[in-house]
Write a structure and sequence with these properties.
Length: about 325
């Protein structure tokens, strides 16, 4: 019984096109390309049958010629439909992180090593239905971008992708399944909320005044890697070919600690994480140095795109224990 169940599961997986993630470059061999007649193809076959029967009954020589001519065209169309997918190479590119509720942009690169064109190839994501049509010239490559909905934070795998074609006459449908080893990081959906109020102590979610701020311009200094691009003096850099950073003085500069423990537990984990994500974006917009505290993880205060991405990634992958 277990062996029969395993065999049945394999048959169902084969029929549904379920595959394990395939890393690297995937080549569609002849055995991976399936083909069946379309509705138009079945109608074409029925018409050929009627023509053949009529030609036999009435001994029509021209009828036989027309029937076998059309049959030859159908067989040639079947060969060209299969050839439009066979030996095609598919590989996945990097997917940029998105926020929950947006669409992850998965990039697939299709390579045509053969000396003939491959027009009208439909690339469709099986789970979401996202699809795009690609035309490949001889010995060239093309990019297909699939917008897959990302409803939840965490890693979003690409799962199964179907490549389909009905070229050239639409009489046959050829398709193949691939499952590139690609995934996209989904950040929590940010909640639009104000940052915590300033407090004299550097507690969770509290602002600690610094000697430097970002209200009044006080001068220029040499650029450092951790400086925010918003503070770069681009006009001065254009004149001197040297990157300089603006310095500000005032009371607005501060360090902000964002702590999951400071968000009420009654909101639930996902709402608490979303609030922290909104605070991170707000702190980055205001040019603050902010840190993040999660159970078992602490990111020191900093600013910039790299720090923002590290904090959002920590929130995206956080799971309560």
């Amino acid at each position: 019984m277990p062996a029969a169940a395993t065999l049945g599961g394999r048959v169902r997986a084969w029929w549904a096109g379920e595959l394990a993630p395939e890393p690297g470059r995937v080549v569609l061999g002849q055995r991976r390309v399936y083909i069946v007649p379309t509705r138009l193809g079945w109608l074409f076959g029925a018409t050929l049958g009627i023509l053949l029967v009529g030609s036999i009954n009435y001994a029509l020589q021209l009828g036989f010629a027309l029937t076998f001519l059309l049959a030859g065209m159908g067989l040639a169309a079947m060969v060209h439909t299969t050839r439009n997918l066979a030996r095609l190479a598919v590989s996945a590119g990097r997917a940029e992180p998105v926020f929950a509720g947006e669409a992850a942009q998965f990039r697939l690169y299709l390579e045509n090593p053969s000396p003939h064109d491959r027009p009208a190839i439909l690339v469709r994501h099986a789970a979401s239905g996202a699809q795009v049509v690609v035309d490949l010239a001889a010995r060239s490559a093309a990019e297909a971008v699939l917008g897959v909905p990302a409803p939840r934070r965490g890693w979003l795998p690409l799962t199964r992708v179907t490549l389909e074609t009905r070229f050239p006459l639409g009489l046959f449908r050829a398709w193949s399944y691939v499952r590139p080893d690609a995934r996209c990081l989904v950040y929590p959906r940010p909640e639009a909320s104000a940052l915590p109020d300033a407090a004299p102590a550097a507690d969770a979610g509290a602002l600690r005044p610094q000697s430097r701020g970002n209200e009044d311009f006080s001068g220029l200094r040499a650029y450092q890697l951790q400086d925010s691009p918003r503070h770069v003096a681009w006009k001065a850099a254009a004149r001197s070919d040297e990157l300089l950073t603006k310095q500000f003085a005032g009371t607005a500069g501060a360090e902000l600690w964002l702590d999951l423990a400071a968000v009420p537990r009654a909101l639930g984990l996902e709402a608490r994480v979303s609030r922290l994500a909104g605070w991170i974006l707000a702190a980055e917009r205001q040019g603050l140095r902010y840190g993040l505290r999660l159970p078992g993880l602490k990111l020191a205060p900093d600013q910039g795109d790299a720090h923002r991405a590290a904090c959002l990634q920590a929130l995206a992958l956080y799971e309560s224990r």
